[in-house]
Amino acid sequence: MMNPIRVVVVDDSALVRSVLTELINRSPDLKVIGSAADPYEAREKIRELDPDVITLDVEMPRMDGLAFLERMMRLRPTPAVMVSTLTERGAATTLRALELGAVDFVAKPTANVRNGLSALAAELTGKLRAAAQARVKRAAMPPAAVPAVSVPKPSATGQAHDHLIAIGASTGGTEAIREILCKLPAETPGIVITQHMPPGFTASFAARLDSLCALRVKEAADGDRVLQGHVYIAPGGKHMVIERHAMGGYVCRITDTEAVNRHKPSVEVMFQSVARVAGKRATGVMLTGMGADGAKAMREMRDRGAYNFVQDEASCVVFGMPKEAIAAGAASEVAPLGQIASKLVQRTGAVRGHPSS
């Protein structure tokens, strides 16, 4: 048997440390080798034990989790899964942690911690396994918070468009999506995105992106018409399906059906609907992520005439979903993350044609 993945748990709550340790150690391929109540203790444990991955609380005494994460990624990069409170403030902090280099996060329950964390056991252990395999990079200098930019936004009553861009992502996807969207011009055709994320975080994610790029970004609502220069992010805990609009173009439908591939929202659900209604008028993008969600439906998109970009292994945090998409024959082109935005501009510029009325 291979050596288990070695985990250090960092949380100021003795109860949370105890419960996380118990849950993680139930998996034979995972082992908690140490725990720490604050970042100073964590620093010594990481130095002494050299874990494969850590869990890290966001709010801790003496030094908050973000400050510790920033220093760790600069001095001793270690894969981290954040344990975040499910609040608006917690969501914003978690997004900042992902910018600083955290691989993923789980939402800590605010009540009945033991039962709440037990319900998250499968999600937590899956994310720890993915994080242990993730590519984390040493930060060259303390990364500053990305400043919001003031740019003219497309009109909220803008034009629909016959072309559609559909993006799917999971682990590592929040930063990959940010990199792509920040490089796209306001005249880009409408974009729909499914990023694996729980309820309570997608609205903050959309607001953050909206403040950073020339596109208008929002958490999708049922009935939203897909407009040029706009981005619609599937809400956490719901599926997003794309339909044709009676007046031309497309419309978002938000559904509360069962999880698909253990995910809700599911990339498979969104891509399948895009294949059905957009066909050759669609461009697909599969970004970094764990698992295989969306691979089959992306192949269906390609079979119906869509052109699909898949992120290459070297630029992925986790080469799971892109690898499966390539294996399924879904990729029209495999490209580094840094080139996908310019390729989207070239591709959609070539097929742009006339907006729908």
Automatic annotation (TrEMBL):
<dbReference type="Pfam" id="PF00072">
    <property type="entry name" value="Response_reg"/>
</dbReference>
<dbReference type="GO" id="GO:0050568">
    <property type="term" value="F:protein-glutamine glutaminase activity"/>
</dbReference>
<keyword id="KW-0597">Phosphoprotein</keyword>
<keyword id="KW-0378">Hydrolase</keyword>
<dbReference type="GO" id="GO:0005737">
    <property type="term" value="C:cytoplasm"/>
</dbReference>
<protein>
    <recommendedName>
        <fullName>Protein-glutamate methylesterase/protein-glutamine glutaminase</fullName>
        <ecNumber>3.1.1.61</ecNumber>
        <ecNumber>3.5.1.44</ecNumber>
    </recommendedName>
</protein>
<feature type="active site">
    <location>
        <position position="170"/>
    </location>
</feature>
<keyword id="KW-0145">Chemotaxis</keyword>
<feature type="domain" description="Response regulatory">
    <location>
        <begin position="6"/>
        <end position="123"/>
    </location>
</feature>
<dbReference type="InterPro" id="IPR008248">
    <property type="entry name" value="CheB-like"/>
</dbReference>
<keyword id="KW-0963">Cytoplasm</keyword>
<dbReference type="InterPro" id="IPR011006">
    <property type="entry name" value="CheY-like_superfamily"/>
</dbReference>
<comment type="function">
    <text>Involved in chemotaxis. Part of a chemotaxis signal transduction system that modulates chemotaxis in response to various stimuli. Catalyzes the demethylation of specific methylglutamate residues introduced into the chemoreceptors (methyl-accepting chemotaxis proteins or MCP) by CheR. Also mediates the irreversible deamidation of specific glutamine residues to glutamic acid.</text>
</comment>
<dbReference type="InterPro" id="IPR000673">
    <property type="entry name" value="Sig_transdc_resp-reg_Me-estase"/>
</dbReference>
<dbReference type="InterPro" id="IPR001789">
    <property type="entry name" value="Sig_transdc_resp-reg_receiver"/>
</dbReference>
<dbReference type="InterPro" id="IPR035909">
    <property type="entry name" value="CheB_C"/>
</dbReference>
<feature type="domain" description="CheB-type methylesterase">
    <location>
        <begin position="152"/>
        <end position="351"/>
    </location>
</feature>
<dbReference type="GO" id="GO:0006935">
    <property type="term" value="P:chemotaxis"/>
</dbReference>
<comment type="similarity">
    <text>Belongs to the CheB family.</text>
</comment>
<dbReference type="GO" id="GO:0000156">
    <property type="term" value="F:phosphorelay response regulator activity"/>
</dbReference>
<feature type="active site">
    <location>
        <position position="196"/>
    </location>
</feature>
<dbReference type="GO" id="GO:0008984">
    <property type="term" value="F:protein-glutamate methylesterase activity"/>
</dbReference>
<dbReference type="Pfam" id="PF01339">
    <property type="entry name" value="CheB_methylest"/>
</dbReference>
<feature type="active site">
    <location>
        <position position="293"/>
    </location>
</feature>
<feature type="modified residue" description="4-aspartylphosphate">
    <location>
        <position position="57"/>
    </location>
</feature>
